[in-house]
Every structure is written in structure tokens, then in C-alpha cells.
Amino acid sequence: MGKLLHISASPRGEASESLRIARVFTETYQETHPGDEVEHWDLWDGSLPDFAVGARAKMTVFGGNEPQGAEAEAWDAARRTFERFDSADRLLFSVPMWNASVPYVLKQFIDVVSQPGWIFTVDPVTGYGHQLAGRGKRVAVVYTSAVWGPPLGPEFGSDFQSTFFDDWLRWTGLTDIQDIRFHPTLTGDWDEARRAADARARDIAKVF
């Protein structure tokens, strides 16, 4: 039995287009993969640990030592977060655009789970090693925005949303990535954009 983990970076509930499209995806996935588990993880639910002390623990680990005391507690909390993320062989992210990039809670998630030995290794000659590579994991990402869109010029903003997040995914070793986009722009046809995004979500979910 497989597992699909939907990780949401939108706090907007029923008003969220990224969550609406994610629902289309997960409902189709459940219909076509009836034996698989589907878990939803709202990154705004308070489950992400603060990483101020964890950042010190990270440098302790980099130095070849074991975190102690408060550092050890922070490191354990980060490890539990990573293990929840790593528990699924199928990952769906809903990622709205905030100020040309991603919501800060998604950056917090990335900073918590991106640790040496879990996500990456570093070699002084060959550089980074990608710890999630070669494990058969697949990723789908719902990218949404209301103002910026691919046909528009820089006066409507820039896309540091998908460029940043795709780069992080590939850095971890996750390279089997499908995107579902909803960028209707201020003057676009929102109904047509919804239909197109929903159709792509269903198509990917069926074979995911």
C-alpha cells in the first residue's frame, strides 16, 4: 500500500485556489488508488517546530558532535518532522505565490527538514549529495497566483515561487516532479483557468 502526503502552505481554507485544486487531485487519487493512504498536513496547524535552537544543533552535528540538552530536544523535533515528510512515497504540495515567492511557513518547513544526513550530504570535492534520490518518490506541486502569470512582463512581478521550490526539490534528490498551475492574472478567464488546472490535476492523479 502506498501513501500520498498532501502538504499545504495555504492558510485560506475554502477561499484557497491551491487547496481547491489539491482537493480535486486527492479525490481523484483516492478513486484511482483505493488501497493507498492519503494524509493531509496543514503547515499552519502549529506542528512545525521553531528552529532557533535547532539551527545551533545543526551546526553541532556539522561539527561531528551530538546535540545536548535543549539542542537535542530541538533536533529530535526536527527529526520527527522530517520522518513525517519522508513517510510518503507520493507527495503533493499546494503552494500559493506570496510576494513573488512562497509562504514563509513553507520556508520554515524546508529549513526544519533540510538537515545533514537526512536531506543532504556535503563533500569538499564533489559538493552536495542528494539523500532522497533513487527511492522512487514522486512529487506533484500546485502553483497558484492571482497577479503574476507566464505571459506577463516584469511590471506584474516575477516567479521566484516555482524556481525556488523546484530547485529545493531537486536538491533533495526528488526529480520526478509534475506541476499544476493556476495563474489566471487580474484580467484572465478564471473559469477557464480553473477547468484547465482541474483537468491537469485529475490527469496526474490518475497515474501518480
UniProtKB/TrEMBL annotation:
InterPro entries: Flavodoxin_fold (IPR003680), Flavoprotein-like_sf (IPR029039), FMN-dep_NADH:Q_OxRdtase_AzoR1 (IPR050104), NADH:quinone_OxRdtase_FMN_depd (IPR023048). Also exhibits azoreductase activity. Catalyzes the reductive cleavage of the azo bond in aromatic azo compounds to the corresponding amines. FMN binds at residues 10, 16-18. It comes from the Bacteria. Residues 3-201 form the Flavodoxin-like fold domain. SUPFAM superfamilies: Flavoproteins. It catalyses: N,N-dimethyl-1,4-phenylenediamine + anthranilate + 2 NAD(+) = 2-(4-dimethylaminophenyl)diazenylbenzoate + 2 NADH + 2 H(+); 2 a quinone + NADH + H(+) = 2 a 1,4-benzosemiquinone + NAD(+). It comes from Nonomuraea roseoviolacea subsp. carminata. Binds 1 FMN per subunit. Its EC number is 1.6.5.-, 1.7.1.17. PANTHER family: FMN-DEPENDENT NADH-AZOREDUCTASE 1, FMN-DEPENDENT NADH:QUINONE OXIDOREDUCTASE. The keyword NAD applies. Keywords: Flavoprotein, FMN, NAD, Oxidoreductase. The keyword Oxidoreductase applies. This is FMN dependent NADH:quinone oxidoreductase. Homodimer. Its cofactor is FMN. Belongs to the azoreductase type 1 family. GO terms for molecular function: oxidoreductase activity.
